[in-house]
Amino acid sequence: MKITYREALNQAMCEEMERDDRVFLMGEEVAEYNGAYKVSQGMLDKFGPKRVIDTPITELGFAGLGVGAAMTGLRPIIEFMTWNFAILALDQIVNAAAKMKYMSGGQYSVPMVFRGAGGSAARVGAQHSQSLENWLANVPGLKVVMPSNPADAKGLLKAAIRDNDTVVFIENEINYGDVGTVPDGEYIIPLGKADVKRVGNDVTIVAHSRMTGFALAAAEELAKQGIDAEVIDPRTIRPLDETTILRSVAKTNRVVTVEEGWRFAGIGAEISARIMEKGFDDLDAPVIRVTGKEVPMAYAANLEAMTLPSVADIVEAARVVCGRA
Amino acid sequence: MSAEQNQGAGIMHDGVFYNAETLHQMHDSMLFIRRFEEKAGQMYGLKKIGGFCHLCNGQEAVCVGLHHASEPTDYMMTSYRDHGHILARGSDPTAVMAELLGRKGGIVKGKGGSMHMFDITKNFAGGNGIVGEQVPIGLGFGFSSWYRNDGRVTICIMGDGGINQGAVYESFNMAALWKLPIVFVVENNQYAMGTSLDRASAETQLFKRGISFKIPGMKIDGMDVLEFERKMRTAMAHARSGEGPILVEAMTYRYRGHSMSDPATYRSRAEVDEWRTGRDPIARIQGQMIEAGIATEEDFKQKDRDIKKEVAAVAKAAEEQPEPDAAELWTDVYSDPIEGAYPYPGKVS
C-alpha cells in the first residue's frame, strides 16, 4: 500500500487507539483542526473528544499532564506542533518523564510518546528550524526515534506507543508528504534497530531522518563514480544500534555521518566516538561528519540552503574518506 | 482520665464531631512527624544525611489534615518538602529514614533521597525537586481520573514559592477548562527560601490566584488541624462532585530554615517565637483534647516519650541497613532491558 508519511503516522495512532483504550492523543490543534500538519486527520471523528483533545497553547502544562497521566497507567501521545515549542516543556521531558522511574525506585513508569515535527522546515527562520535530537538523546530514561520514510514512520510509532517508557518521536516536517510503500496489516518495527537502506562495500554513510534520503541520493551519484556506498539509518537515536554500524564499518572501513543538526556534540560525534572506541582497528581513514553549519537558520533561500547539508556535500565527504577527492 | 475510658468522647468542631480515636491519631501523627524531622535534622548535623534536606516542623497540621480529609485512593503529590506528607500518608517511617540515609531499604531504594519520596501503594507521587513541577503532573493525575471516571481526587501541593511558576497557571487553566477533580493546595509558610511573600508576590492573598481561571479559593488556618481538616473536606467534596478544581491556601509556618543549610536570618526571632509558642499545631490540639477531657498533660508527656523512642528505633533500624547494592545503579532507568545499552559506553570489547 502506497501512502504518505503523515498517513502512516495517522494509521499507527488509529490502530493503537483501537487496540488500547488507555491511549489518547493530546496537543494543539490535533482535534477540530485535524492537526496543524494534518497528521491527526479524521481522528476526532473516529475517537471522539475524550480521546483526541485540543489543548490551549501551553506546552509545559500539557507535557506535564501527559507525564502524570502516564504515571497512572494511561498511554498518552502528546503532540508538539513542532519540537521547537517543546523547548518550553523540557522540564517535564527531562526532569520528570526521563527520571521518574529511577527517582521513584522503579515505582512509577512513564509510558508515553512525545511526538511532532522536527528538523529544518522551509523558509521559517531560526526559531522554527533546528535539530534537537542530540539534546534529548543525551538523557538516560528517554528513547529517541526518528523515522525517515512512511513504512518506518508507521512501524516505529506503533512500537513507541506500546513501549513501557517515554519515547521522543521526532518526525520530519518536510517528509510529511513523502509517499512510500507500507506493508499491509500489523506492522511494527522494534525500537533500537538500525536499517541498512542500501548495501555497499566501499564506504558507510550513517544518516537519519530526512538526511537518509539525501544519503541514498548521494549513494546513487557515488555509484556513477565507482564508489559503492552502504547507507545505514539508525532509526532510533537512543538506544543506538551500534552493532549494525560496527558490522558495516568492519566491511567498508570508511565512514561518513550525516545530520541536519549542529556539529558540536551532535549525533555524528557520538557515532564517531563509538566507532573509535569499538571499531578503531577497522578504520582506514578518520570518520568525516557532514552536519548543518553552526549558525541559527537564516530566512533567505540561499543562506538557508548553505546552512543545511546537501547531497553534494555527502558525495564530497565520501570521496574524501575514500581517498578519491 | 485516660483516653481508653473516653472512646465515646470527642470534640465538636463547627458541627463536625471528632471522636477520641481520630483525635489521638491526628495528634500522634503530627507529633511523630515533628520528632521525625527533629531526628532528621540531627542526622543531617552528624553528616549522615547529605545534600538538600527540607524539614516541615511547624507545618504538621497541613500534612495530617490533608491525609485525614482524603481517601487512600486519592492521589497526592508535592514538592521536595515531602517527609511530613509521606509519613502522614502512612508510609513506613523506617523506609523514609533509610531513604534520607541513602540505604538499601529506602522507600525509593536510595535513589531519591530527601526530595524524592514516592510510595505508589499510598498513591503518593513524589517528592518533586523542581519548584512547581509537580503541578502539571498533578494535572495529569486529575486528567486520568476524569478520563477513567474513577471518582478519585488529586491533591496537588505546592508552596508559596511554587505558586509563582508559570506551569501552575497553565495547569490551573486546563484543570478549570476540563473541570478536573483536583484540589490545589498552597502551603503558605510565608517564605520562598529567603524571600518573604510580599517581596515575591503582587497578590499576597494566594487563594485568589485562581480567580481568573474561575477556580474558587479558600484560605484556611493551617496551624489548627481540626479547622484545616474540616474545611479541607469541603474542598475535597467540591472536587469530587465534578464541579472542577479548587484552590486551598493553608496558612502555616516553617520553624526551621528553607533547608538544613539555611540559618533563616531573614526572619526575626520574635516572629518565629510568635508562631512556635503562640500557634503551634501540636500544642493546640493537646490543649483542645485536655479541655475536652480526652487526655491529660501526663498522657501527652508519656506519648512524647514513646514517640521519641519509636523514632530512635526507626533511625537505628535505618542506619543498620547497608547501602544499595552496586547493581542498583543500572536498574529502573528503563522498564525493559535494552540490548547493548549497558554498560554505556562500557569497556571496549
**The number of domains of chain B:** 1
The biggest chain-chain interface is: A-B, 50 and 52 residues
Sequence stretches where pLDDT stays below 50 over 5 or more residues of chain B: 1-7, 343-349
Average pLDDT, all residues of chain B: 94
* Count of discrete alpha- or pi-helical segments spanning 4 or more residues of chain A: 13
Domain Transketolase-like pyrimidine-binding (chain A): 3-178
Keywords (chain A): Oxidoreductase, Pyruvate, Thiamine pyrophosphate
Pfam families (chain A): Transket_pyr (PF02779), Transketolase_C (PF02780)
InterPro entries (chain A): THDP-binding, Transketo_C/PFOR_II, Transketolase-like_Pyr-bd, Transketolase_C
Structural commentary:
The complex is a heterodimer of chains A (325) and B (349). Chain A is 38% helix and 19% strand. With 325 residues, chain A is α/β, with parallel strands linked by helices. Chain A has 2 domains: 180 residues, Thiamin diphosphate (ThDP)-binding fold, Pyr/PP domains (Rossmann fold), CATH 3.40.50.970; 127 residues, Rossmann fold. In chain A, the strands form 3 sheets. Chain A has a 7-stranded mixed β-sheet with strand order 3-2-4-5-7-6-12, with helices on both faces. A 5-stranded mixed β-sheet of chain A has the order 9-11-10-13-14, sandwiched between helices. In chain A, 59% of the residues are buried. The model of chain A has no long low-confidence stretch (mean pLDDT 97). In chain B, strand 1 and strand 2 form a beta hairpin. Chain B has one domain: Rossmann fold, CATH 3.40.50.970. In chain B, helix 1 runs antiparallel to helix 10, helix 2 packs across helix 8 and helix 5 packs parallel to helix 6. By secondary structure, chain B is of the alpha/beta class. Chain B is globular. The chains are: A alpha/beta (325), B alpha/beta (349). Chains A and B meet through helix 3, helix 5, helix 6 and helix 11 of A and strand 4, helix 5 and helix 6 of B.
